[in-house]
Amino acid sequence: xxxxxxxxxxxxxxxxxxxxxxxxxxxxxxxxxxxxxxxxxxxxxxxxxxxxxxxxxxxxxxxxxxxxxxxxxxxxxxxxxxxxxxxxxxxxxxxxxxxxxxxxxxxxxxxxxxxxxxxxxxxxxxxxxxxxxxxxxxxxxxxxxxxxxxxxxxxxxxxxxxxxxxxxxxxxxxxxxxxxxxxxxxxxxxxxxxxxxxxxxxxxxxxxxxxxxxxxxxxxxxxxxxxxxxxxxxxxxxxxxxxxxxxxxxxxxxxxxxxxxxxxxxxxxxxxxxxxxxxxxxxxxxxxxxxxxxxxxxxxxxxxxxxxxxxxxxxxxxxxxxx
Amino acid sequence: xxxxxxxxxxxxxxxxxxxxxxxxxxxxxxxxxxxxxxxxxxxxxxxxxxxxxxxxxxxxxxxxxxxxxxxxxxxxxxxxxxxxxxxxxxxxxxxxxxxxxxxxxxxxxxxxxxxxxxxxxxxxxxxxxxxxxxxxxxxxxxxxxxxxxxxxxxxxxxxxxxxxxxxxxxxxxxxxxxxxxxxxxxxxxxxxxxxxxxxxxxxxxxxxxxxxxxxxxxxxxxxxxxxxxxxxxxxxxxxxxxxxxxxxxxxxxxxxxxxxxxxxxxxxxxxxxxxxxxxxxxxxxxxxxxxxxxxx
Lengths: 323, 296
Fold this sequence. Notes:
Chain A is built from 14 helices and no strands. By secondary structure, chain A is mainly α. By secondary structure, chain B is mostly helical. Helix content of chain B is 68%, strand content 0%. Chain B contains eleven helices and no strands. Residues 8-15 of chain B have low confidence and may be disordered. Chain A binds chain B through residues 14-16, 18-19, 22-23, 26-27, 29-30, 138-139, 141-147, 150-151, 153-154, 158, 258-259, 262-263, 265-266, 269, 280-281, 284-285, 287, 292, 295-296, 299-300, 303-304, and chain B through 134-135, 137-139, 141-143, 145-147, 149-155, 226, 230, 233-234, 237-240, 252, 256, 259-260, 263, 266-267, 270-271, 273-274, 277-278, 280-282, 285.
């Protein structure tokens, strides 16, 4: 086990180095240098630009620039925003809670709804329930999230005052300053639409995955054996087949983990949800490269760590896996 | 394809023997998939509309009708007019060209690149395989949509660039699919036989292995076209799309802030995107069943 984890860690490290090189290269392809961009905004003279270029080491060879940048990243120094002149790290951290809360609830609801549907679809394969759900899965995977969001806004939110279209909280309704129930109701009202869109977007894929996984197990010999020796259908399905069919679901957790951060850019943009995704999107519009690079690296880091955890967890829950 | 054709028995009863080619068998199986057949019709219609758009559009999509901003649906403007008084119906017809082309070209690019890399990695194996697969993993380690946003932020936003960017950010998964096929097919006896009679590598890859992994490649391409369309329209919807000429996603974005009194501006292009992606998904599903009945 120790050797397996070590080799996987090494692989993850290699991936992160690769990602950092890729991110750095893409930004290097951008037309115009940092110094020129900043120079434009503060009416700098040519001498000022030259001084900035030297100060930031932009006259150095590219591999030295990369090395400096990578060292800073490793120390947790993501630099300062080119637009707000604040540390990028602070900007991201203060946006984290909104994004994580939204995505945690979304992920929880997706699993809560999708797993039972997938299981029932598999157990009652080709029943009317299965057909209806399969059709919905098709519709769900073809429906653009933002189109669904627009329909919800038009047909639901615009007809019901209680459901706000944008933002995260009413002004003045702060934790500790109003009764708890009032706070909870206010936050829930703002959560309804982003949650609905997020859950809808992730549902179809997981339902299909769970159904396929459960079908795989139901057709195994040991399930036939369990039936043959006279076990009730309940025990066969829930005690024998279900437990094994949940194993592959563990592998989906890796992607889920990375989705905590970057999975909701479009949703945050539509509902003005003040999270990391919206910050990143604004960084793209203003070409705030420091924020973009930091976001890419953190996103990749979450994905790699998520995958690593999923792989290790998979070995833990399934003793048949040899490493 | 060792599959019995239910029609084959007919040819023994007096009628002229009809040869069962791979294509005719596939077509026979595909036709039974009613929904897929229906959506083939829908898609063909959309493509025809896209091609003849300049001739059937009642107005110039860029022409501004002074005094006619935010017109509701009418005889003259079947889908109303937009913020500047341009005919939305004509813009939708022209937008079909952009949206369909983006899906087709970017998925084609991703698949071509992926097949090339996957074939090389899978066929030759060894160090080359290791290096290519590590590159794929690095690209897949960045959440795709954000990689896309980064590249879009850096490069000029033109129709060609959007297509290239979607193609270049999504090829790694295609490469892994094709590599997997090649890894198993290259061990087959018939490949060994081809090698023993002195066939060159290029000939084995092009004529012996590639045709045998066309089924998953075709299915994946079909599904990817829908996926690429979704990606492009999501980009356009958050304001990073091509504006001139507009795609369906851009048209949706244009109506986003006037949803309350001009909902058709957003909902009609949205429904069109949804319909097209749905069509590709159903056709992809039908093709999967038809091309390889074992594949599920």
